[in-house]
Amino acid sequence: SAGVELSVNNHAADFTLSTGLSPAISLSCLVHNSSQAEELLWYRGAGQVDLKDGNKVNISNICISPVNESDNGVTFTCRLARDKGVQVSVTLDVQFPPQLSGEETLQVEEEKDVTLTCNSKSNPQGQSTWLKDNQSLTLQQSHHKLYQTSEVFQLSISKVQKSDNGTYTCLVESRLGNGTRDFHLIVEDKKPVFPKEAVIAAVVVVTITILFGIVARKDKFLKVW
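Predicted structure:
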């Protein structure tokens, strides 16, 4: 295979192909500098692509259809069958506007902690922020906490109060568009707490009282018997 080269979409070296969400894109692999028929192989990541018999020799084409978010960052590689060291790879850079998801309605008892989780996917990564009732949320250091990764944007609220009731909006802005997701937070009344020790003590007192009553009236019970 000395001197044999490959090209993918006219690129003789590894490259990145930027694209948006589209119905389909085609990749064409071509053999150069060979005096014989050369079989080609295609791989998606580590998995081999199944090619038809008429699409393997000297030139081979594959189609990605449709192109979606899951294709972002995926590498397609064309290799020479008899020498897999001869290859060209293309990595897809699929760009798309923010897509958000997350639990829409959360109910929490007063004085409890709650976390609103906004799952966000976008390429390029967007700028994230939180709104409350369509207004910018004023963060309180001891009350609110933010956590963010490339795909998760969280707002944690410590010891929620009735004033925390409302609609929180996760807003992600990118140059390809904006995405929003509403989270309805319902703060419920704090449930009364019955101390376990007091309940046990009450049961013991009632039990002892009943026993004493039985002992005090045992003569009457025996007479009836």
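Summary: Helices lie at 196-216, 218-224.
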